[in-house]
Amino acid sequence: MRLKLAMTMPLRALVATALFGLVGCDLDVPDLNNPGLEELEENPTPALVGSASTGLIIQNRFGISAQAGGGYVSLLGILGRESYTFDRADPRSVGEMLVGQLSPNSPFGGAHWGVPYTAIRAANIILRAVPRTPGLSAEQQSATAGFAHTMQALALLRIIVTRDDIGAVINADHEIGELGEIVSRDEVYAEIGRLLDVAVEELKNGGAEFPFALNNGFDGFDTPSSFIQFNRALAARAAAYRGSLLLDAGHSCSGDCATSYDRVLTVLGNSFISPEAMPPASLGDLDRGVYYSFSTSPGDVTNGLISPNIFVHPSVREDVQPNDVRFTRKVRPVAGDDTDPPGSDASGLESNLKFRMYTSPNSSVPLIRNEELILLRAEANWALGNPLTAAIGDLNLVRDVSGDLPALDAGLSRGQVEDEILYNRRYSLLFEGGHRWIDTRRFGRTDEIPLDLPDHGLNIRFPLPQAECDGRPGEPKCEMGSR
Protein backbone atom coordinates (compact mmCIF):
# COMPACT_ATOMS: atom_id res chain seq x y z
CA MET A 1 0.00 0.00 0.00
CA ARG A 2 1.41 3.35 -1.04
CA LEU A 3 0.84 6.60 0.80
CA LYS A 4 -2.22 8.47 -0.40
CA LEU A 5 -2.20 12.21 0.09
CA ALA A 6 -5.78 12.70 1.11
CA MET A 7 -7.90 15.83 1.16
CA THR A 8 -8.71 15.71 4.84
CA MET A 9 -7.07 18.10 7.29
CA PRO A 10 -5.95 15.35 9.71
CA LEU A 11 -3.91 13.59 7.05
CA ARG A 12 -2.49 16.87 5.74
CA ALA A 13 -1.35 17.62 9.26
CA LEU A 14 0.15 14.13 9.49
CA VAL A 15 2.09 14.70 6.28
CA ALA A 16 3.34 18.08 7.53
CA THR A 17 4.51 16.73 10.88
CA ALA A 18 5.74 13.28 9.88
CA LEU A 19 7.06 13.74 6.38
CA PHE A 20 10.34 12.21 7.58
CA GLY A 21 8.51 8.92 7.15
CA LEU A 22 8.64 9.59 3.43
CA VAL A 23 12.17 10.94 3.13
CA GLY A 24 12.43 13.99 5.32
CA CYS A 25 10.70 16.81 7.12
CA ASP A 26 10.73 20.54 6.72
CA LEU A 27 8.89 23.49 8.13
CA ASP A 28 8.03 24.68 4.63
CA VAL A 29 5.58 21.96 3.55
CA PRO A 30 2.81 23.48 1.40
CA ASP A 31 -0.88 22.65 1.44
CA LEU A 32 -1.25 19.38 -0.43
CA ASN A 33 -4.98 19.80 -0.94
CA ASN A 34 -4.74 21.15 -4.48
CA PRO A 35 -5.22 19.05 -6.50
CA GLY A 36 -6.66 15.96 -4.73
CA LEU A 37 -3.86 13.46 -5.17
CA GLU A 38 -5.82 10.69 -3.47
CA GLU A 39 -8.49 10.96 -6.14
CA LEU A 40 -5.78 10.98 -8.79
CA GLU A 41 -4.46 7.66 -7.51
CA GLU A 42 -7.86 6.04 -7.24
CA ASN A 43 -9.74 7.47 -10.21
CA PRO A 44 -7.39 9.30 -12.60
CA THR A 45 -8.82 11.51 -15.30
CA PRO A 46 -7.09 13.73 -17.86
CA ALA A 47 -8.22 16.80 -15.92
CA LEU A 48 -6.77 15.51 -12.65
CA VAL A 49 -3.50 14.51 -14.32
CA GLY A 50 -3.29 17.95 -15.91
CA SER A 51 -4.01 19.77 -12.65
CA ALA A 52 -1.46 17.70 -10.76
CA SER A 53 1.15 18.31 -13.46
CA THR A 54 0.60 22.05 -13.33
CA GLY A 55 0.82 21.71 -9.56
CA LEU A 56 4.41 20.46 -9.93
CA ILE A 57 5.37 23.90 -11.24
CA ILE A 58 3.78 25.49 -8.17
CA GLN A 59 5.51 23.06 -5.80
CA ASN A 60 8.90 23.60 -7.41
CA ARG A 61 8.40 27.37 -7.17
CA PHE A 62 7.42 27.19 -3.48
CA GLY A 63 9.83 29.18 -1.30
CA ILE A 64 12.00 30.38 -4.18
CA SER A 65 11.34 34.10 -3.70
CA ALA A 66 10.40 34.38 -0.03
CA GLN A 67 12.20 37.21 1.78
CA ALA A 68 13.24 35.05 4.74
CA GLY A 69 12.38 31.75 6.38
CA GLY A 70 12.83 29.15 3.67
CA GLY A 71 13.45 31.59 0.81
CA TYR A 72 15.89 29.92 -1.58
CA VAL A 73 17.32 32.97 -3.40
CA SER A 74 17.44 35.03 -0.20
CA LEU A 75 19.02 32.37 2.04
CA LEU A 76 21.62 31.28 -0.48
CA GLY A 77 22.32 34.94 -1.24
CA ILE A 78 23.08 35.56 2.43
CA LEU A 79 25.33 32.48 2.65
CA GLY A 80 27.27 33.58 -0.44
CA ARG A 81 27.48 37.20 0.78
CA GLU A 82 25.50 38.51 -2.14
CA SER A 83 22.89 39.97 0.19
CA TYR A 84 21.83 40.83 3.71
CA THR A 85 18.35 40.58 5.17
CA PHE A 86 17.91 43.07 8.00
CA ASP A 87 14.66 42.09 9.68
CA ARG A 88 14.36 43.39 13.22
CA ALA A 89 11.33 41.14 13.74
CA ASP A 90 13.37 38.01 12.96
CA PRO A 91 17.13 38.37 13.56
CA ARG A 92 17.87 34.81 12.42
CA SER A 93 18.79 36.15 8.96
CA VAL A 94 21.96 37.37 10.67
CA GLY A 95 22.16 35.37 13.89
CA GLU A 96 21.66 31.95 12.31
CA MET A 97 22.76 32.56 8.73
CA LEU A 98 25.96 34.54 9.36
CA VAL A 99 26.96 34.05 12.99
CA GLY A 100 25.78 30.62 14.10
CA GLN A 101 25.35 27.30 12.40
CA LEU A 102 22.15 26.58 10.52
CA SER A 103 19.62 24.97 12.82
CA PRO A 104 17.91 21.77 11.66
CA ASN A 105 14.87 22.86 13.70
CA SER A 106 14.35 26.23 12.02
CA PRO A 107 12.68 27.29 8.77
CA PHE A 108 16.13 28.52 7.74
CA GLY A 109 18.40 25.51 8.28
CA GLY A 110 15.57 23.02 7.87
CA ALA A 111 14.46 24.40 4.50
CA HIS A 112 14.64 22.90 1.01
CA TRP A 113 14.04 19.28 1.96
CA GLY A 114 10.37 18.60 2.60
CA VAL A 115 8.95 20.70 -0.22
CA PRO A 116 11.14 19.29 -3.01
CA TYR A 117 10.40 15.76 -1.82
CA THR A 118 6.70 16.59 -1.79
CA ALA A 119 7.06 17.51 -5.47
CA ILE A 120 9.00 14.32 -6.19
CA ARG A 121 6.34 12.16 -4.55
CA ALA A 122 3.54 14.03 -6.30
CA ALA A 123 5.33 13.34 -9.59
CA ASN A 124 5.49 9.63 -8.69
CA ILE A 125 1.73 9.64 -8.18
CA ILE A 126 1.29 11.28 -11.59
CA LEU A 127 3.62 8.75 -13.22
CA ARG A 128 1.60 5.85 -11.76
CA ALA A 129 -1.68 7.44 -12.78
CA VAL A 130 -0.77 8.30 -16.38
CA PRO A 131 -0.94 4.79 -17.92
CA ARG A 132 -4.24 4.15 -16.11
CA THR A 133 -5.93 7.34 -17.28
CA PRO A 134 -8.64 6.79 -19.90
CA GLY A 135 -8.70 9.50 -22.53
CA LEU A 136 -4.95 10.20 -22.57
CA SER A 137 -3.36 9.24 -25.87
CA ALA A 138 0.01 7.49 -25.98
CA GLU A 139 1.61 10.78 -26.98
CA GLN A 140 -0.04 12.65 -24.12
CA GLN A 141 1.05 9.99 -21.65
CA SER A 142 4.64 10.23 -22.89
CA ALA A 143 4.65 14.05 -22.77
CA THR A 144 3.29 14.06 -19.21
CA ALA A 145 5.83 11.48 -18.06
CA GLY A 146 8.68 13.49 -19.58
CA PHE A 147 7.49 16.62 -17.85
CA ALA A 148 7.14 14.83 -14.48
CA HIS A 149 10.59 13.25 -14.66
CA THR A 150 12.15 16.62 -15.53
CA MET A 151 10.45 18.29 -12.58
CA GLN A 152 11.63 15.49 -10.29
CA ALA A 153 15.20 16.14 -11.41
CA LEU A 154 14.77 19.87 -10.78
CA ALA A 155 13.51 19.17 -7.24
CA LEU A 156 16.36 16.75 -6.55
CA LEU A 157 18.89 19.32 -7.76
CA ARG A 158 17.53 21.84 -5.26
CA ILE A 159 17.96 19.27 -2.49
CA ILE A 160 21.55 18.32 -3.31
CA VAL A 161 22.89 21.84 -3.83
CA THR A 162 21.66 22.69 -0.34
CA ARG A 163 22.81 19.43 1.34
CA ASP A 164 25.96 18.87 -0.75
CA ASP A 165 28.23 16.18 0.76
CA ILE A 166 25.53 14.99 3.17
CA GLY A 167 23.83 13.44 0.17
CA ALA A 168 20.11 12.81 -0.25
CA VAL A 169 17.42 10.18 -0.79
CA ILE A 170 16.86 9.24 -4.42
CA ASN A 171 14.23 6.54 -3.84
CA ALA A 172 11.37 8.47 -2.25
CA ASP A 173 8.51 6.16 -3.23
CA HIS A 174 7.94 4.43 0.11
CA GLU A 175 5.12 3.73 2.50
CA ILE A 176 4.76 6.01 5.52
CA GLY A 177 7.25 5.01 8.20
CA GLU A 178 9.71 3.50 5.70
CA LEU A 179 12.86 5.57 5.24
CA GLY A 180 14.73 5.87 1.99
CA GLU A 181 18.49 5.45 2.12
CA ILE A 182 20.56 8.62 2.01
CA VAL A 183 23.07 8.07 -0.79
CA SER A 184 26.21 9.99 -1.73
CA ARG A 185 26.27 13.32 -3.50
CA ASP A 186 27.70 11.73 -6.64
CA GLU A 187 24.91 9.14 -6.72
CA VAL A 188 22.36 11.95 -6.44
CA TYR A 189 23.89 13.74 -9.42
CA ALA A 190 23.89 10.49 -11.35
CA GLU A 191 20.18 10.05 -10.60
CA ILE A 192 19.44 13.62 -11.70
CA GLY A 193 21.16 12.87 -15.00
CA ARG A 194 19.27 9.61 -15.38
CA LEU A 195 15.89 11.24 -14.74
CA LEU A 196 16.61 13.98 -17.27
CA ASP A 197 17.72 11.47 -19.92
CA VAL A 198 14.62 9.30 -19.38
CA ALA A 199 12.51 12.43 -19.72
CA VAL A 200 14.08 13.38 -23.06
CA GLU A 201 13.10 10.07 -24.65
CA GLU A 202 9.56 10.47 -23.32
CA LEU A 203 9.31 14.06 -24.55
CA LYS A 204 10.51 13.04 -28.02
CA ASN A 205 7.43 10.81 -28.23
CA GLY A 206 5.16 13.44 -26.67
CA GLY A 207 3.53 14.88 -29.76
CA ALA A 208 3.02 18.54 -30.56
CA GLU A 209 1.76 19.84 -27.22
CA PHE A 210 1.32 19.05 -23.54
CA PRO A 211 -2.18 17.99 -22.41
CA PHE A 212 -2.06 20.71 -19.72
CA ALA A 213 -1.03 24.35 -19.45
CA LEU A 214 2.38 25.64 -18.38
CA ASN A 215 2.58 29.12 -16.92
CA ASN A 216 4.22 32.07 -18.66
CA GLY A 217 7.57 31.35 -17.03
CA PHE A 218 7.88 28.60 -19.65
CA ASP A 219 7.07 30.81 -22.64
CA GLY A 220 8.94 29.42 -25.61
CA PHE A 221 9.47 26.08 -23.86
CA ASP A 222 5.87 24.96 -23.46
CA THR A 223 5.71 22.13 -25.98
CA PRO A 224 7.34 18.72 -25.57
CA SER A 225 9.97 19.47 -28.22
CA SER A 226 10.89 22.91 -26.85
CA PHE A 227 10.75 21.62 -23.27
CA ILE A 228 13.58 19.26 -24.24
CA GLN A 229 15.79 22.35 -24.62
CA PHE A 230 15.00 23.33 -21.01
CA ASN A 231 15.66 19.75 -19.89
CA ARG A 232 19.06 19.75 -21.61
CA ALA A 233 19.94 23.09 -20.02
CA LEU A 234 19.26 21.60 -16.58
CA ALA A 235 21.32 18.56 -17.55
CA ALA A 236 24.26 20.84 -18.42
CA ARG A 237 24.07 22.62 -15.06
CA ALA A 238 23.90 19.34 -13.13
CA ALA A 239 26.75 17.79 -15.11
CA ALA A 240 28.96 20.85 -14.56
CA TYR A 241 28.23 20.77 -10.83
CA ARG A 242 29.14 17.08 -10.73
CA GLY A 243 32.25 17.56 -12.83
CA SER A 244 33.62 20.45 -10.78
CA LEU A 245 33.39 18.33 -7.63
CA LEU A 246 35.70 15.81 -9.32
CA LEU A 247 38.47 18.28 -10.19
CA ASP A 248 41.78 17.28 -8.64
CA ALA A 249 43.79 19.44 -6.24
CA GLY A 250 45.33 21.36 -9.14
CA HIS A 251 41.93 21.76 -10.79
CA SER A 252 42.80 19.52 -13.71
CA CYS A 253 40.16 17.11 -14.98
CA SER A 254 40.30 13.48 -16.11
CA GLY A 255 38.31 10.28 -15.72
CA ASP A 256 34.82 10.81 -14.33
CA CYS A 257 35.43 14.56 -14.22
CA ALA A 258 36.10 14.63 -17.97
CA THR A 259 33.07 12.41 -18.59
CA SER A 260 30.86 14.91 -16.76
CA TYR A 261 32.23 17.91 -18.62
CA ASP A 262 32.01 16.11 -21.97
CA ARG A 263 28.35 15.63 -21.12
CA VAL A 264 28.01 19.38 -20.50
CA LEU A 265 29.10 20.13 -24.07
CA THR A 266 26.94 17.34 -25.50
CA VAL A 267 23.70 18.32 -23.79
CA LEU A 268 24.27 22.03 -24.40
CA GLY A 269 24.15 21.20 -28.10
CA ASN A 270 20.48 20.24 -27.65
CA SER A 271 19.60 23.06 -25.26
CA PHE A 272 18.56 26.61 -26.07
CA ILE A 273 22.12 27.94 -25.94
CA SER A 274 22.85 30.56 -28.56
CA PRO A 275 24.75 31.69 -30.45
CA GLU A 276 27.40 29.26 -31.61
CA ALA A 277 30.00 31.87 -32.51
CA MET A 278 28.76 35.42 -32.99
CA PRO A 279 27.82 37.61 -30.02
CA PRO A 280 24.10 38.00 -29.33
CA ALA A 281 22.53 41.20 -30.52
CA SER A 282 21.22 42.25 -27.13
CA LEU A 283 20.76 41.46 -23.47
CA GLY A 284 17.43 39.94 -24.45
CA ASP A 285 19.26 37.07 -26.10
CA LEU A 286 21.17 36.36 -22.90
CA ASP A 287 17.97 36.57 -20.86
CA ARG A 288 16.14 33.94 -22.91
CA GLY A 289 15.25 31.02 -20.68
CA VAL A 290 12.82 29.62 -18.14
CA TYR A 291 11.65 31.67 -15.16
CA TYR A 292 9.76 31.28 -11.92
CA SER A 293 6.64 33.34 -12.54
CA PHE A 294 4.86 35.40 -9.86
CA SER A 295 1.81 37.63 -9.89
CA THR A 296 -0.75 39.47 -7.82
CA SER A 297 -3.59 37.47 -9.37
CA PRO A 298 -6.00 35.93 -6.86
CA GLY A 299 -4.62 32.67 -5.51
CA ASP A 300 -1.14 33.23 -6.92
CA VAL A 301 2.10 34.09 -5.10
CA THR A 302 4.00 37.37 -5.31
CA ASN A 303 7.75 37.86 -5.49
CA GLY A 304 9.00 38.48 -1.94
CA LEU A 305 12.46 39.57 -3.09
CA ILE A 306 11.19 43.14 -3.39
CA SER A 307 11.22 43.23 0.43
CA PRO A 308 12.59 46.48 1.89
CA ASN A 309 14.61 44.32 4.32
CA ILE A 310 16.88 42.94 1.57
CA PHE A 311 20.16 44.76 0.85
CA VAL A 312 23.22 44.10 -1.29
CA HIS A 313 26.34 42.88 0.50
CA PRO A 314 29.08 45.57 0.28
CA SER A 315 31.57 43.09 -1.21
CA VAL A 316 29.54 43.06 -4.43
CA ARG A 317 30.62 46.68 -4.97
CA GLU A 318 34.13 46.17 -3.63
CA ASP A 319 34.97 43.26 -5.94
CA VAL A 320 33.46 44.47 -9.23
CA GLN A 321 35.82 45.19 -12.11
CA PRO A 322 35.96 48.83 -13.25
CA ASN A 323 33.11 49.86 -15.55
CA ASP A 324 31.27 46.52 -15.34
CA VAL A 325 27.73 47.63 -16.13
CA ARG A 326 26.27 44.45 -14.65
CA PHE A 327 26.78 46.10 -11.28
CA THR A 328 24.99 49.33 -12.16
CA ARG A 329 22.25 47.45 -14.00
CA LYS A 330 21.51 45.18 -11.04
CA VAL A 331 22.43 47.31 -7.99
CA ARG A 332 21.49 50.82 -6.95
CA PRO A 333 22.49 53.08 -4.05
CA VAL A 334 19.73 53.86 -1.57
CA ALA A 335 18.48 57.43 -1.55
CA GLY A 336 19.23 57.72 2.14
CA ASP A 337 15.96 59.41 3.04
CA ASP A 338 13.04 58.20 5.14
CA THR A 339 11.44 56.37 2.23
CA ASP A 340 14.66 54.64 1.14
CA PRO A 341 17.00 54.35 4.14
CA PRO A 342 20.19 52.30 4.37
CA GLY A 343 20.02 49.03 6.24
CA SER A 344 21.78 47.91 9.38
CA ASP A 345 21.49 45.55 12.32
CA ALA A 346 22.42 45.70 15.99
CA SER A 347 25.80 44.02 15.44
CA GLY A 348 27.04 46.81 13.22
CA LEU A 349 26.40 45.34 9.76
CA GLU A 350 25.21 47.90 7.25
CA SER A 351 24.58 48.45 3.57
CA ASN A 352 23.50 51.38 1.44
CA LEU A 353 22.91 49.25 -1.66
CA LYS A 354 19.79 47.54 -2.98
CA PHE A 355 19.00 45.30 -5.92
CA ARG A 356 17.34 46.71 -9.04
CA MET A 357 16.47 43.31 -10.47
CA TYR A 358 13.10 42.65 -8.84
CA THR A 359 10.96 45.75 -9.04
CA SER A 360 7.42 44.55 -8.43
CA PRO A 361 5.42 41.69 -6.88
CA ASN A 362 5.04 40.38 -10.44
CA SER A 363 8.78 40.20 -11.18
CA SER A 364 9.97 36.81 -12.41
CA VAL A 365 13.04 35.03 -11.02
CA PRO A 366 15.34 33.26 -13.47
CA LEU A 367 15.40 29.48 -13.25
CA ILE A 368 17.99 29.10 -16.03
CA ARG A 369 19.03 31.55 -18.75
CA ASN A 370 21.12 31.53 -21.91
CA GLU A 371 23.80 33.64 -20.21
CA GLU A 372 24.40 30.81 -17.75
CA LEU A 373 24.58 28.26 -20.56
CA ILE A 374 27.30 30.24 -22.35
CA LEU A 375 29.28 30.39 -19.11
CA LEU A 376 28.77 26.65 -18.57
CA ARG A 377 30.24 26.05 -22.03
CA ALA A 378 33.24 28.18 -21.11
CA GLU A 379 33.65 26.20 -17.89
CA ALA A 380 33.47 22.86 -19.70
CA ASN A 381 36.05 23.82 -22.32
CA TRP A 382 38.36 25.13 -19.58
CA ALA A 383 37.95 22.00 -17.43
CA LEU A 384 38.55 19.61 -20.32
CA GLY A 385 41.83 21.28 -21.22
CA ASN A 386 40.57 22.36 -24.62
CA PRO A 387 42.33 25.36 -26.16
CA LEU A 388 41.67 28.24 -23.80
CA THR A 389 40.58 30.38 -26.72
CA ALA A 390 37.23 28.53 -26.68
CA ALA A 391 36.54 29.46 -23.04
CA ILE A 392 37.91 32.97 -23.50
CA GLY A 393 35.68 33.50 -26.52
CA ASP A 394 32.55 32.70 -24.50
CA LEU A 395 33.75 34.82 -21.59
CA ASN A 396 34.36 37.74 -23.94
CA LEU A 397 30.90 37.29 -25.42
CA VAL A 398 29.31 37.65 -21.97
CA ARG A 399 31.68 40.42 -20.88
CA ASP A 400 30.86 42.42 -24.01
CA VAL A 401 27.10 42.03 -24.17
CA SER A 402 26.28 41.82 -20.45
CA GLY A 403 29.15 43.72 -18.86
CA ASP A 404 30.25 46.17 -21.58
CA LEU A 405 33.81 45.21 -20.67
CA PRO A 406 36.89 44.97 -22.91
CA ALA A 407 37.94 41.62 -24.29
CA LEU A 408 40.24 39.40 -22.27
CA ASP A 409 43.77 38.79 -23.49
CA ALA A 410 44.06 35.60 -25.52
CA GLY A 411 47.20 34.70 -23.59
CA LEU A 412 45.54 34.27 -20.18
CA SER A 413 46.77 31.36 -18.08
CA ARG A 414 44.55 28.46 -17.05
CA GLY A 415 44.28 29.89 -13.52
CA GLN A 416 43.33 33.32 -14.84
CA VAL A 417 40.61 31.80 -16.99
CA GLU A 418 39.23 29.98 -13.94
CA ASP A 419 39.16 33.31 -12.09
CA GLU A 420 37.27 34.91 -14.96
CA ILE A 421 34.75 32.06 -15.15
CA LEU A 422 33.88 32.52 -11.48
CA TYR A 423 33.94 36.31 -11.66
CA ASN A 424 31.60 36.42 -14.64
CA ARG A 425 29.27 33.83 -13.13
CA ARG A 426 29.16 35.94 -9.97
CA TYR A 427 28.03 39.14 -11.69
CA SER A 428 26.02 37.65 -14.55
CA LEU A 429 23.99 35.42 -12.19
CA LEU A 430 23.93 37.77 -9.21
CA PHE A 431 21.09 37.06 -6.74
CA GLU A 432 19.32 34.66 -9.09
CA GLY A 433 19.71 31.41 -7.18
CA GLY A 434 22.69 31.20 -4.87
CA HIS A 435 25.21 30.69 -7.66
CA ARG A 436 28.10 32.34 -5.86
CA TRP A 437 27.68 30.20 -2.72
CA ILE A 438 27.40 27.05 -4.82
CA ASP A 439 30.33 28.01 -7.08
CA THR A 440 32.83 28.84 -4.35
CA ARG A 441 32.02 25.55 -2.64
CA ARG A 442 32.30 23.36 -5.73
CA PHE A 443 35.59 24.99 -6.75
CA GLY A 444 37.05 24.78 -3.23
CA ARG A 445 37.23 28.56 -2.90
CA THR A 446 34.97 29.23 0.05
CA ASP A 447 37.81 31.15 1.68
CA GLU A 448 36.96 33.95 -0.78
CA ILE A 449 33.61 34.56 0.92
CA PRO A 450 34.16 37.44 3.37
CA LEU A 451 33.34 37.13 7.06
CA ASP A 452 32.18 40.57 8.13
CA LEU A 453 32.81 40.35 11.86
CA PRO A 454 35.11 38.21 14.03
CA ASP A 455 32.26 36.07 15.36
CA HIS A 456 30.91 35.23 11.89
CA GLY A 457 31.34 31.84 10.27
CA LEU A 458 30.68 30.19 6.93
CA ASN A 459 27.87 27.68 6.55
CA ILE A 460 28.76 25.51 3.57
CA ARG A 461 25.70 23.23 3.56
CA PHE A 462 22.25 22.90 5.09
CA PRO A 463 21.89 20.18 7.74
CA LEU A 464 19.32 17.43 7.58
CA PRO A 465 16.08 18.67 9.17
CA GLN A 466 15.57 17.55 12.76
CA ALA A 467 12.44 15.55 12.01
CA GLU A 468 14.36 13.62 9.37
CA CYS A 469 17.03 12.76 11.93
CA ASP A 470 14.41 11.83 14.53
CA GLY A 471 13.54 9.00 12.17
CA ARG A 472 17.22 8.08 11.75
CA PRO A 473 18.62 7.78 15.28
CA GLY A 474 22.37 7.38 15.29
CA GLU A 475 22.91 7.95 11.57
CA PRO A 476 26.25 9.74 10.97
CA LYS A 477 24.61 11.98 8.35
CA CYS A 478 22.65 13.62 11.16
CA GLU A 479 25.88 14.61 12.86
CA MET A 480 26.97 16.66 9.86
CA GLY A 481 26.18 20.26 10.63
CA SER A 482 26.24 23.25 8.34
CA ARG A 483 30.01 23.86 8.54
Average pLDDT for all residues: 91
Query: At the first level of CATH, what is the class of the domain at 9-221 and 450-475?
Result: Mainly Alpha
SSE sequence, one letter per element: HHHHEHHHEEHHHHEEHHEEEEEHHHHH
Strand order of the largest sheet: 1-5
Task: Report on this structure.
By secondary structure, the protein is mainly α. The chain has a domain at 9-221 and 450-475: Alpha Horseshoe (Serine Threonine Protein Phosphatase 5, Tetratricopeptide repeat), CATH 1.25.40. The protein is 45% helix and 6% strand. It is built from 18 helices and ten strands. It has a two-stranded antiparallel sheet. Helix 9 packs antiparallel against helix 10 and helix 14 (370-383) packs antiparallel against helix 16 (414-428). It is globular and about 60 Å long. Mean pLDDT is 91; it is low at 1-35.
Summary, kept brief:
The protein has 483 residues and is mainly alpha-helical.
Distinctive features:
Serine Threonine Protein Phosphatase 5, Tetratricopeptide repeat, two-stranded antiparallel sheet, 483 residues, mainly alpha, globular
Helix-strand layout with pairing:
Elements: H1 9-17, H2 37-42, H3 46-61, H4 72-79, E1 83-85, H5 92-99, H6 114-129, H7 138-163, E2 168-169, E3 182-183, H8 185-204, H9 224-244, H10 256-268, H11 283-287, E4 289-292, E5 310-312, H12 315-318, H13 325-330, E6 331-333, E7 343-344, E8 350-351, E9 353-355, E10 365-369, H14 370-383, H15 388-403, H16 414-428, H17 435-442, H18 466-470
Antiparallel strand pairs: 1-5, 2-3, 4-10, 6-9, 7-8
Helix pairs in contact: 3-6, 3-7, 6-7, 7-8, 7-9, 8-9, 9-10, 9-14, 10-14, 14-15, 14-16, 15-16
